[in-house]
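Sample intake sheet
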Amino acid sequence: MMDQGNTPVFDGLLEYIRKQKVSFHVPGHKGGLVFPEKAAPFFRQVLPFDATEVANLDDLSRPTGILREGEALLSDYYGTRSSYYLVNGSTVGNLIMVLAACARGDTVFVQRDSHKSVFNALQLAGVRPVFLAPAIDPGSGLAAGIAEEAWEAAIRRFPETRALILTYPNYYGMAPDVGQLIEKAHAAGLSVLVDEAHGPHFKMGPPVPPSTLDMGADLVVHSAHKMLPAMTMGAYLHINTARVPAEKVEAIREMLQTSSPSYAIMASLDLARYYMANLDQTERSRIFAARNAFVRALKDMEKIHVLEPRPGLFRLDPFKITLELDTGESGFDWQERLIASGVYPELADPHHVLFTLGLTGRIDYRQALSRMARTLRESRGKAVWHRPEGALFPKWTTIALPYGALSAMEKQEIKLNEAAGRIAAEHVVPYPPGIPAVVRGERVTEESLKAIESWKSAGAVFQNRSIDSGRINVYRTGEI
């Protein structure tokens, strides 16, 4: 075991700042000397940490000093074969995993409610994706991992598949038991890649769900800044088995990451690992006591319900609190009033508001509860959102043509009611549940069109302006 009390990257930066008297190197702000005066008081303390790869500060692509030691400590904490700093977020981690584990033309199973960076990685890798349908929690209408029957149907149809890409937990902190699925994938010869962006704290132990690193996943990405005290864009990439060669992972990381990594971000990644590794039982107890008291108070409030774990379907991250209103109004309406009161949620959807708590006992939950109660008293009931009934997704789907062929095709925008049988030229993603009703490259079906209309009428928000106007982008030569 290594000494998890060490912070080599942070300490190395402090030594660099102490020794440097004159800067004849980039960046141009010269440690904060050159900066707009109106902003200088706010940035002056952090800019000296915004260093570059000068002597003694190491090289992220080929670390031999403080960065190598920092990554070794990271690997030691998570119990991996090797772990790496990422300064381009978990987005670049997802790209690295797919490009390292998959070859052009490979068939790859993909959890349908994956992050958009996974879909981009599939295209860059030139693989053949097979999208697996989610299990839907009947209580909330939210996705809760891959449906077991979807896996069984897909592996029978595509036994040549090379990889399985999972998202665990989802944005709402829902963490299904994927251990058996990982075992089945390995038994079938698949590599398992996990976008565990929202679970970098899953090494804490109960009541926090377990990490897929402890379930044998091969490659795992953590978005450290989402839950740990790390700066935005700070993430970790872990190699957990020998199934994907480390040399390939490292080569692709060097190819995709910036050659000018932020030392402020890397120091925060070093400190985030230190924070987690040194949480003692007293502080853990304080954190959970504050969290539990807050949740008890929420449950005592009228007009809201707190999402609970569903035994046999999913566990929940205790630091993600999903609230459902019974006032008849949407989550968007309540979010607007919460923000006006000074309470900023993580997100809202037509039926929920999500709070992401910090790993600390210092948040003023009493103030938040007081402000929330005031917004609930101001509630203006509107039409209740009714969740669409029935399964919206087939067990599995795939793209109609290879990505290379799709890239050469022209696009056109047509009316939704004319799109059945055409090849979609865009993802159509309703929130909630955040699962693509149509994936770019898929044939649009009558069922998917009905699903889109159902979500629209329910008040779901789409990232597609075309959908808002009742239209969709398709490939011009995709008629059947």
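Comment: The longest strand covers residues 320-325. The longest helix spans residues 281-300.
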